[in-house]
Amino acid sequence: MATWVWPDTLFRRLAIILFAGLLAAHVLSYSLVALNVFGLSNEAGDDYFMRYIATAVAILDRVKPEERPAWLDRLARPTYRYILREEGETEAAPPKRRQDNLARLRAMIGPGHEAKSVFYLDPQDRRRLGWLVHLKDGSPLMLQFVARRTVISPWLPAAFAAQLFALAFFTWIAVKLATQPLVRLERAANTLGSDLRREPLPEDGPKEVARAAAAFNAMQRRIAEQAVERIQILAGISHRLQTPITRMRLRADFLGDGDAREKLQGDLQEMQTLVKQGLALARGHDEIGNQRCQTDLHALIDSLVCDYSDAGKSLRFSGERGVTILTHPQASRRIMINLIDNGLKFGEDVEVAIDARQSNRITITVSDRGPGIPDEHLVSVFLPFYRVEASRNRETGGTGLGLAIAQQLASALRATLTLANRDGGGLEARLEFLR
């Protein structure tokens, strides 16, 4: 047995409620009008019917008995006819309406006549009734009703279908207009994290919608101001730290102990790298903005591979040529550098591939053969400063910000970055762009 499932979207719920209400009001108004019109038409029709029977009785009273059969066809109508005989059994308790009509008929035909309703032909079928009138000479005159099938006008179904279509169409328009601001608000909320510089929502429409848009725009401005303030603070800290770090590196060069000098210089280099990557993580989305252009991914990655090859790094690259997508080239380059660096640090046999066979997306994979990452840490490694010491070699260094920066930039580019362990050992990073 099928069960009714209430729609899960506001658009469908409002459409059903509004359409059902309009349809109920439409049917109710039609019923009231029909009852009123039919009631008046029945009363007028009964009066006309009684007058016509009285006229027929007066005509048959005046003609000779032998001429009456010839008049029967002239007086007949599609819904009833006259018979010069009496048959059937007398009705015991006629309905009130029939009693009123009979009383009206008696008043019209005058004294000397008798009018009553009887069941005729088939006593088992009480719906087949007729009226019996006696002429002045006592001859019976039976008014036999002919049952006719009610015929619906051919234009009525088409008119009703047109009315339903109009109700559905205008319901759709009304609900669409009512929910469109919510759709715009949803889209703006979904893109708020990746683009704080997006155009503000239009503050028009009904007062409630305008107030909600104004509140959202104010929230967007506050978040953007806070983000700018955070970037400025981190940029100032980074700038201030560069000077003492540089002085410390210069002083380290004058240390006599070579081993101590190398360790100190390594620590200072790690500090400088941490400061730079922390600043890059803070800037993140803000650096991208709307500076997107059609970028040849094959050419971009091929130039990276050539740079690594010139630096003595070994990695392979495969993929179609001429694969372009609307993106930010510098952000895409930074993502690929972070992924390739991770593969070279923690694994070997690094391979970069472009897959553009699907019509709706482009996938770039960076795979390596190494220790991989335990499955329970595949999501956590995208958090800033998160390290998996059990699966990565500590001696390789790193700040724990590379994957966090790559994930943040991928989100800003509306791309998806995921990690998965490979069969046989190693890690595969998948960067998917929607076309």
From TrEMBL:
It holds the Pfam family HisKA. Signal peptide: none annotated. SUPFAM superfamilies: ATPase domain of HSP90 chaperone/DNA topoisomerase II/histidine kinase, Homodimeric domain of signal transducing histidine kinase. GO terms for cellular component: plasma membrane. Residues 176-228 form the HAMP domain. Residues 236-435 form the Histidine kinase domain. It is a multi-pass membrane protein. InterPro entries: 2C_sensor_his_kinase (IPR050980), HAMP_dom (IPR003660), HATPase_C_sf (IPR036890), HATPase_dom (IPR003594), His_kinase_dom (IPR005467), HisK_dim/P_dom (IPR003661), HisK_dim/P_sf (IPR036097), Sig_transdc_His_kin-like_C (IPR004358). The chain crosses the membrane at residues 155-175. Its EC number is 2.7.13.3. It is an enzyme of class 2 (transferase). Keywords: ATP-binding, Cell inner membrane, Cell membrane, Kinase, Membrane, Nucleotide-binding, Phosphoprotein, Transferase, Transmembrane, Transmembrane helix, Two-component regulatory system. One of its GO terms (molecular function) is ATP binding. PANTHER family: SENSOR HISTIDINE KINASE ENVZ (PTHR44936:SF5), SENSOR PROTEIN CREC (PTHR44936). This is histidine kinase. It comes from Bradyrhizobium jicamae.
